[in-house]
Amino acid sequence: MKFASRAVTRLTTTSIAVVLGTVLVLSGCSGAGAGNGSFAQEIVPRNTVIDKFGTITATRGPNGEAPTKATDLALTDDQISQLKSGNHRVAILWHELSAWSKAIQDGMVNEFQTLGIKITATGDAKFDAATQANQIQSALATKPEVILGQAVDPSTGAAAYQPAVDAGVKLIFADQAPDGYVYGKQYQAILTDDLYQVGTHTGEAMCKAIGNKGEVAILYYDADFHVTNFRDASFQQTLHDACPDAKVVAKEGFSDPNKAEEIANGIIAKHPHLAGIYTSWAVPAQGVLAALKSAGNTSTKIVTVDLDDTIATDMVSPGGHTAAIIVDSAYKYGKAMAIAAALSILGKPGPEYGVSDVVTTTKSNVAEGYAAWNQTVPSSVSDAKKP
Q1: Per-residue pLDDT tens for 324-340?
Q2: Rg (alpha carbons) of the chain, rounded to whole number
Q3: Rounded distance, CA 191 to CA 304, Å?
Q4: What is the Cα–Cα distance from 155 to 48, expressed in whole angstroms?
Q5: Which CATH number do you get for residue 186?
Q6: Are residues 93 and 187 in the same domain?
Q7: What would the mean pLDDT of 151-171 be, rounded to a whole number?
Q8: How large is the average pLDDT for residues 65-71?
Q9: Which of 49, 244, 264, 374 could cysteine-pair with 288, CB 3.0–4.6 Å?
Q10: Is residue 8 assigned to a domain?
């Protein structure tokens, strides 16, 4: 199963949104209930994992951490010299080596090369918690001072990483630390996207795509994972605030992104006049795209998160459904993780919750989106753009 991006926690879902018995009939003025998904005459659930944040004004971590800019991380010339002469060692262990995590790793690798830091082990757990636990044990045998990456599952990650903590190895996490871990004790830094910014960019892109009005469906990740929950909530609030004449007519969750097409088929059958559909990231967006094509729909617009060649190809193609893909600065994100690791080696604090900026990628600036991942536009995408 291929997941994109950060939706990597064990799939323990609430399944609230897909149970029709929980659907609430809401009515009221379009300005009511900002941040809680309340639009004029909408018929959607309001007690899902993306409705727990209240009114959102800025990114916050899962424990209320305030964000700092990842671009503010820097090393002095003396620190760089100290690192280059120290024969330091790190390991990079991923929940999955996807296109996103590969872009981050590329940033790490280049920064570590600059600093003379050796990478002793890398790992791709393929979303299997037991595999990751074994890879952590194997990496520890290479004597790294720091392990970087992401836990497959925050709820089981604490046990998996405990041998590293016991050995005094520093931990730098992408997106989220294991449950119960404390900044400055079990881990030294978290780096992620500016989640609020992701939501505002997706919401504004949707408003532009649908002309600020019409029926919208939200297909959200129905598991307790802060990164996706928060940015989905930020999208919902931005849509409400930026185009109150839009109407959310469907709001359904998925736990398996490969089931998105099935869910989208049901939404499209009930709401054939949808102006737009939002999905949490690009893999479920592939399912939405397939469902729209199967239904003969030529008008509904898609807005989603994270680069994907299939979705990017649709976006640049004449008559494509995809209006925008919100892309994080994954390469710079990786460099920031490497700098945080270097600081931890020197006994200096890294960011408790460092965030990176994002790019709204459309047909007109697709190269900018790929550049954020330190990639060139693949021929499959550039060729699709040709008339």
Answers
A1: 999 999 999 999 999 99
A2: 21
A3: 21
A4: 20
A5: 3.40.50.2300
A6: yes
A7: 95
A8: 93
A9: 264
A10: no
**Sheet with 146-149: strands ordered across:** 68-69, 354-356, 189-193, 170-174, 146-149, 89-94, 118-124
- Does residue 12 lie in a domain region? no
Query: What mean pLDDT, rounded, does the chain reach?
Result: 89
In this prediction the pTM is 0.85
Closest CA to 120 of 82, 78, 163, 169: 169
Residue pair 198/358 in contact (Cβ under 8 Å)? The answer is yes
Strand-pair partners of 118: 89
| Region 30-36 average pLDDT | 36
User: What are the Cα distances from residue 92, in Å, to 157, 208, 330, 333?
Assistant: 15, 39, 15, 14
Helix (H) or strand (E) holding 136: helix 129-140
Q: Are residues 201 and 318 in the same domain?
A: yes
Within this chain, do residues 369 and 265 fall inside the same structural domain, yes or no?
Answer: yes
Neighbours of 219 (CB within 10 A): 27
Residues 278 and 160 in one domain: no
Contact 363, 385 (CB under 8 A): yes
Q: Do residues 87 and 142 touch, judged by C-beta distance below 8 A?
A: no
